[in-house]
């Protein structure tokens, strides 16, 4: 067994959804020499034309309450005074209106908050719940109308503000409150960001902090002391003096059965490589709702199919021989943690085993770009062929903003809103699991991408900063990548046969695409988030799921809820659902939504009136109100979903973009279920709403821990059933798939087949295919005598150096 996975010498590092405490301790202790600058990919043999981008920064969100009687009026005055300088006007500097906060800005906000003595702030690291601490700082985007006036009409640059989440645990009535802090970069005011009426985030809805995980870890170790011998005898692992044979845990959510509760089921696992797949058979329910950890108690214990009232009861019955015990085999048969190449690797390990019938031992093909990248990166903006867009990493996930093609805006925002995984199981933790990942910091777990594996060697890698559950901005190297690659099929091609053994011409366009990629590693699972830009004005979003499955202890009854993946392991059935917000602006902000369908007509054949003619016709449907344009999963979604402008193309058709969804999602939770309120967006593969500043996000960091009464309820966006014709429209898209684990999910879920997403495709938007502007086209003409004539617009390539840069991977993230 190697030790690389062992976290920082902790005797019992908390696991998965749970592991934050030790992980937090690791922050600031880089394990090697850091590469902390953003790195531009490309061929080392060729000078790179582009400038490297400064780090992308980011951070958090929230909502809160402290009954602070602050100088709100003074705040507003300052805000007005801060109405900023005139913009310098270049696309790059203008796009900084969307930029994540820099380290300097994050620190300025932190210092400003700490200077407000009335907040009585303490370090987020202070080992207590009863404290006031800053949980999250991130960009608070200005209102869309302000930004558009700035971008399009040369009006004033909007004030730059931060969104701050403060946990007020030291108050008589602990609460969570969100603030806007500005103006940046030198904050002078803060004002509370009021929740929607009746939707204040409850104290118990706050995400679990790394300190709470430390306290939970301690509480679990204390509570399970009576089980020390039991653990040793049944697993060979324990919580005490365990050296390399320690237990860890995965906690699941929701944390209880009703609003106001905070009691979590914990799956105990052996802390080995890929510990998510090593449950011990023991699960515990711990109430940690009190701010006083002395009040925390284990309420129930489940072991191998039976419930016990306490660890003591299980220990007692075990001693009396009344427990149906499963003794786990030793996962470390010989070396006991020492590296021993002769030991077979754990089934949960990535180490190669087995053989192909035709072994492949060399390096595979790879991407090269001998002439350097075709895109330009300017700060948080990418310019590529006809495309330009900006991007940022919000705490909820990646957002692309101000997406333009040919100088025309197509979408103001396309962004990840949420990713959930809804499970079934026979064990209490398995049946309780409904992960709502924004509550686990979905946009903040953007760990390092490996060149040549996660992104091509030619990619440009960008760093990120997150201020989430920390006292300092944390620097995440190579958190995003941008790269260009050839399409797997030609964008267009035609062989024009002369039907006499030859051709009139051949023409083809290889087609390149630009990809913006990041990942979210939410404990066991990894999501790979792609935004893909094609030269013909098509944009695609795609998410792949990979990483370890969420798994529980095998019992025969568990087979109703999943697949046996190993001796003591069930991979539980679950559904992945991801939600996106697509704020389309198709030839302006005034759009309508309509669908086209095929409808069969049955008429008399006009040229043979004794016959019938059955043929497809076009049927257009207009949608006037939000309710009408909210499509339930139980109904068939029309195939042509069009966002149209009143402006027309040369042939009299409305200029439009088509939304094309690639998904295998289905509705999982019935709307009658109380906790379904947290994910009401998951009722609709598509809902179209009128733009509202109060409806920018369909979920929140609080929905996970109070799904019964969450502060953000998507369904309420539809309640006023607004008029949606000739308005600024937003499409909300749910994609996903059912995942029934199978043996090939060991060691990890693989990406092929596990991707879903959608495309935005021009539909009568351009006068012709805009990829005609590409100079990549090749046309071949036959000649009567002599070789064929090859017509091209880019000279043929010369030979060049193809070696990529040596592989490097640092893997650390640390405060700056
Ligand atoms: Cu899955």
Average pLDDT for all residues? 89
Overall 3D geometry? globular
Spatial gap, N to C terminus: 34 Å
Hetero ligands: copper (II) ion
- Level-1 CATH class name of one domain: Mainly Beta
Q: What are the segments in which pLDDT stays under 50 over at least 5 consecutive residues?
A: 1-16, 18-89
Helix content: 10-25%
- Computed Rg: 28 Å
| Beta-strand segment tally | 38
Instruction: Give me the number of helical elements.
Output: 10
What is the name of the CATH architecture of one domain?
Answer: Distorted Sandwich
- What is the CATH superfamily label of one domain? Copper amine oxidase, catalytic domain
Largest sheet: 16 strands, mixed
- The amount of beta strand, in percent, is 25-35%
Structural class: mainly beta
- The CATH topology of one domain comes to Beta-galactosidase, Chain A, domain 5
Explain what this protein looks like in three dimensions.
Helix content is about 10%, strand content about 35%. It has about 800 residues and is mainly beta. Among the domains are: about 95-190, Nuclear Transport Factor 2, Chain: A (Roll); about 210-320, Roll (Nuclear Transport Factor 2, Chain: A); about 375-420 and about 440-485 and about 520-555 and about 575-770, Beta-galactosidase, Chain A, domain 5 (Distorted Sandwich), CATH 2.70.98.20. The strands form five sheets. The chain has a 16-stranded mixed beta sheet that branches. A hairpin with a 7-residue loop joins strand 28 (about 590-605) and strand 29. The longest helix has 14 residues, at about 210-225. The radius of gyration is 28 Å and the shape is globular. The model is unreliable at about 1-15 and about 20-90 (pLDDT under 50). Copper (II) ion binds near residues 545, 576 and 749. Copper (II) ion (CU) binds near residues 545 and 549.
């Amino acid at each position: 067994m190697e030790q690389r996975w062992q976290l920082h010498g902790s005797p019992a590092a908390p696991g998965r959804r749970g592991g934050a405490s030790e992980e937090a301790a690791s922050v600031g202790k880089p394990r090697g020499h850091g590469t902390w600058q953003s790195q531009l990919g490309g061929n080392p043999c060729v000078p790179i034309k582009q400038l490297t981008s400064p780090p992308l920064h980011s951070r958090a969100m929230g909502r809160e309450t402290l009954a602070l009687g602050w100088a709100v009026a003074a705040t507003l005055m300052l805000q007005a005074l801060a109405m900023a300088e005139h913009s310098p006007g270049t696309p790059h500097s203008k796009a900084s209106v969307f930029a994540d906060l820099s380290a300097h800005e994050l620190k300025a906000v932190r210092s400003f908050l700490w200077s407000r003595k009335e907040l009585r702030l303490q370090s987020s690291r202070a080992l207590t719940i009863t404290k006031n601490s800053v949980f999250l700082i991130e960009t608070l985007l200005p209102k869309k109308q302000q930004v558009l006036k700035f971008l399009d009409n040369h009006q004033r640059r909007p004030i730059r503000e931060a969104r701050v989440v403060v946990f007020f645990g030291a108050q008589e009535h602990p609460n969570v409150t969100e603030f806007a802090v500005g103006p940046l970069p030198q904050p002078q005011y803060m004002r509370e960001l009021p929740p929607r009426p009746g939707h204040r985030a409850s104290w118990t809805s706050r995400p679990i902090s790394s300190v709470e995980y430390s306290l939970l870890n301690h509480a679990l170790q204390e509570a399970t002391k009576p089980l020390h011998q039991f653990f040793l005898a049944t697993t060979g692992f324990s919580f005490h003096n365990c050296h390399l044979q320690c237990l860890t845990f995965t906690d699941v959510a929701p944390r209880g059965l009703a609003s106001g509760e905070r009691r979590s089921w914990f799956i105990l696992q052996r802390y080995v490589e890929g510990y998510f797949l090593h449950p011990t058979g023991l699960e515990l329910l711990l109430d940690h709702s009190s701010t006083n950890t002395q009040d925390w108690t284990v309420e129930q214990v489940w072991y191998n199919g039976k419930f016990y009232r306490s660890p003591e009861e299980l220990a007692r019955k075990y001693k009396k021989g009344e427990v149906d015990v499963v003794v786990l085999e030793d996962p470390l048969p010989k070396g006991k943690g020492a590296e021993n190449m002769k030991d077979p690797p754990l089934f949960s390990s990535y180490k190669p085993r087995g053989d192909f019938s035709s072994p492949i031992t060399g390096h595979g093909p790879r991407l090269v770009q001998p002439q350097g990248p075709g895109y330009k990166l300017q700060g948080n903006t990418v310019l590529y062929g006809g495309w330009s867009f900006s991007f940022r990493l919000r705490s909820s996930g990646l957002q692309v903003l101000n997406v333009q093609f040919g100088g025309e805006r197509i979408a103001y925002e396309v962004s990840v809103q949420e990713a959930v995984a809804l499970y079934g199981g026979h064990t209490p933790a398995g049946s309780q699991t409904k992960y709502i990942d924004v509550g686990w910091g979905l946009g903040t777990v953007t760990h390092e991408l490996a060149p040549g594996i996660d992104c091509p060697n030619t990619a440009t890698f960008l760093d990120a900063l997150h201020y989430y559950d920390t006292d300092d901005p944390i620097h995440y190297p190579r958190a995003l990548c941008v790269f260009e690659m050839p399409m797997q099929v030609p964008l267009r091609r035609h062989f024009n046969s002369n039907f006499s053994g030859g051709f009139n011409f051949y023409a083809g366009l290889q087609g390149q695409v630009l990809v913006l990629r990041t990942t979210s590693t939410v404990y066991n699972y990894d999501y790979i988030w792609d935004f893909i830009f094609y030269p013909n004005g098509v944009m695609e979003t795609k998410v792949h799921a990979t990483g370890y499955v969420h798994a529980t202890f095998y019992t025969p009854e568990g087979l109703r809820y999943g697949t046996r993946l190993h001796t003591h392991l069930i991979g539980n059935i679950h559904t992945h659902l991801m939600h996106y917000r697509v704020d389309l602006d198709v030839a302006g902000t005034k759009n309508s939504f309509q669908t086209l369908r095929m409808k069969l007509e049955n008429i008399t054949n006009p040229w043979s009136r004794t016959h019938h003619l059955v043929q497809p016709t076009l049927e257009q449907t207009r949608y006037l109100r939000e309710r009408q344009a909210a499509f339930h999963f139980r109904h068939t979604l029309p195939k042509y979903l069009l966002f149209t402008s009143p402006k027309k193309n040369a042939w009299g058709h409305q200029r439009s973009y088509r939304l094309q969804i690639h998904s295998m999602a289905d509705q999982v939770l019935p709307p009658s279920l109380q906790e379904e309120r947290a994910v009401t967006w998951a009722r609709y593969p598509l809902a179209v709403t009128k733009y509202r500043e109060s409806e920018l996000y369909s979920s929140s960091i609080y929905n996970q821990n109070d799904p019964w009464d969450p502060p953000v309820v998507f369904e309420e966006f539809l309640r006023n059933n607004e008029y949606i014709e000739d308005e600024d429209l937003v499409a909300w898209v749910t994609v996903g798939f059912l995942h029934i684990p199978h043996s090939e999910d060991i060691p990890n879920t693989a990406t092929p087949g596990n991707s879903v997403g959608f495309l935005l495709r021009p539909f009568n938007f351009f006068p012709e295919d805009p990829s005609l502007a590409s100079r990549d086209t090749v046309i071949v003409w036959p000649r009567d005598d002599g070789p064929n004539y090859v017509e091209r617009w880019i000279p043929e390539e010369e030979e060049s150096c193809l070696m990529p840069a040596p592989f490097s991977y640092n893997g650390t993230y640390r405060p700056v």
